Amino acid sequence: MRREVTLRDVAELAGVSSRTVSNVVNGYANVTERTRERVQRAVDELGYRPNVLARNLAQGRSGQIAVVVPYLDTPYFSELLQSVIRAARVSGYNVLIDQTDGDPEHERAFIAHGSRRLLFDGVIFSPLGLDQQALADRDRTLPLVILGERASDGSFDHVGIDDVAASRLATEHLIDLGRRRIAAIGDQPYATGEAAQRRTRGFREAHAARGLTPREELIISTPRFNRPDGARAMEHLLDLAEPPDAVFCYSDLVALGAIRTIVSRGLRVPEDIAVIGYDDIEDGRFSNPTITTISPDKEMIATTAVDRLLLRITSESPPPGLELRAPFKLVERESTTGRVSPR
Amino acid sequence: MRREVTLRDVAELAGVSSRTVSNVVNGYANVTERTRERVQRAVDELGYRPNVLARNLAQGRSGQIAVVVPYLDTPYFSELLQSVIRAARVSGYNVLIDQTDGDPEHERAFIAHGSRRLLFDGVIFSPLGLDQQALADRDRTLPLVILGERASDGSFDHVGIDDVAASRLATEHLIDLGRRRIAAIGDQPYATGEAAQRRTRGFREAHAARGLTPREELIISTPRFNRPDGARAMEHLLDLAEPPDAVFCYSDLVALGAIRTIVSRGLRVPEDIAVIGYDDIEDGRFSNPTITTISPDKEMIATTAVDRLLLRITSESPPPGLELRAPFKLVERESTTGRVSPR
DNA sequence: CTACGCTTTTGCAGCGCTGCAAAACACAGC
DNA sequence: GCTGTGTTTTGCAGCGCTGCAAAAGCGTAG
């Protein structure tokens, strides 16, 4: 394999210094048109391509951002990632992906001072079990944007929707349909993450706002927000003496699992039990029945996260850590209204 | 921000040369226990972390592999990616992800000689529209493993299941259930990729093997293998004078879309129309009904792809390009048998 | 003609590590 | 004590680029 073409080779051919070639390649301002043309010709003739590794070392940055999610195969995350990758590419950044399987140790390692530092210039992080201690111990020189779980302590940005308000909206929707025995699937009272608790709070607030009291035995905890957990929780609910007539699921996957259980027991959604989900993943638009859900603006979450992270990376003094709220809306589909709805 | 600790700093403290520190850090053999200990102590005391960028430049490799998929939010790919990331991490490689949106130009750019070369040491590529020309023009110094579409020309490895045999098995399953008007959704007769054609071939072979002739008007082409395409194709089929009594869908997503259409027209699956899918994604294990499907061994596909790629990266002379076949099996669920089946 | 300020180009050091080959050391045998 | 062999350590160059500061060029004013 013959040696790669370097800046020096181009410089020699063009009869200028290698620094000038660098200036041309990087589009710096102060280069005369004549020089630029001459260099460009040499670049083209030799087929020169900058060596990214060398540039990285010289600049002390990698041009990469890492995105860390618990599970890559969760549709919510893969849909989000898709937008993150697009947004990053627009700014010339590559995206390195890692999944933690929700393992707190792994999560902690990722933002601690680590050997992988410098491999990425910043991190967009969607933690599950990250506790305050891990956040406090983290590498503070590493630009960080957190999605979902943790409120900002001022040293990083947090992007997400207002979970309490969204959950309240979802629950009120069920109440307003006339349902009175409403279950909630997905609480995690002992988790270090906060998203589940915020949803439960919204669930309670909705009841309070309508002068109702939620039944505690209908609030079901699950380890994760996936289909099997939703299916299991629903089985438990159906085995109660007085099963619910509606369920607020903390993710669409949970809703899909719950619906599966309901249907396989010969009950109907929404006639017997209305179900509402959270996330608005594509599955819910094609399932039987289609799922009413809270739809966060994922595109905005992704672009906001990337923009803030790049700002953090490029700015001299670290900008203040912000709480950034993306909009969300309630999308009514068959699983609560029974009406066939447009996708 | 204070300067990072370098090899030289450690060397100074330990009273050895920086090269020796490097040897210790990298676990080379010929270092006496005494020296190793002394150096290790210095490393710990200073909290030294190797600078990945510098190492990359010196070694001329990045320790990263790129995985290129058409759509990240397609469950088949995200499930596969999950396994690829795990397998790569075991060998100390990071995974850079890119999605092409199926754009042939983007796909071509990725394997052509490019400025991003050196950012990754090899590529695992799942192309959609890559043609022979693009493959021929590619950067041949870039280790490459292709998933799915393209058979190997000997200069790269190809990992996948036997699509013809799998499709034949799927179709025979429908025939053996007594169905005679069997449709196929997902053909792409003019695509540059080969997967769709191979599935259609298996579909035809199954008919031939049973002494039947497939009805051409029941073989439906779709631009992609997703839910909306499946739903649309099914609408077309139901509008025919003689609709099918079974459908072989070229992906589970297509099957989900098709089932959605069937159910929303008031028909039943499988009583009126049996549906079989392809890929065995989690959605199909929780949908209503659950989906009978061809289940490729994704874990094996992922680990095989990573192993072969790393072999290609590390070996002196390029190994021969192989055709590697992963096993698959037929998983019977409700959408064809009507029986409630274990997950 | 010289001085001055501005634009363009250059030279060099150095980012922090590893490859290579030579040097130093250790030990055994004569 | 000296030689030879094998092990351990070292020094240096260099990966290919960019930051920095100095040098060169260039035009205008005095």
TrEMBL record, chains A, B:
Span of domain HTH lacI-type: 5-59
Query: What is the source species?
Result: Actinoplanes couchii
Which SUPFAM superfamilies does the record cross-reference, listed alphabetically? lambda repressor-like DNA-binding domains, Periplasmic binding protein-like I
Q: Which SMART domains match?
A: HTH_LACI
What is the designated name of this protein? LacI family transcriptional regulator
Q: Give the range the annotation lists for the signal sequence.
A: none
Query: Pfam families of this UniProt entry?
Result: LacI, Peripla_BP_3
Q: Which UniProt keywords are listed?
A: DNA-binding, Transcription, Transcription regulation
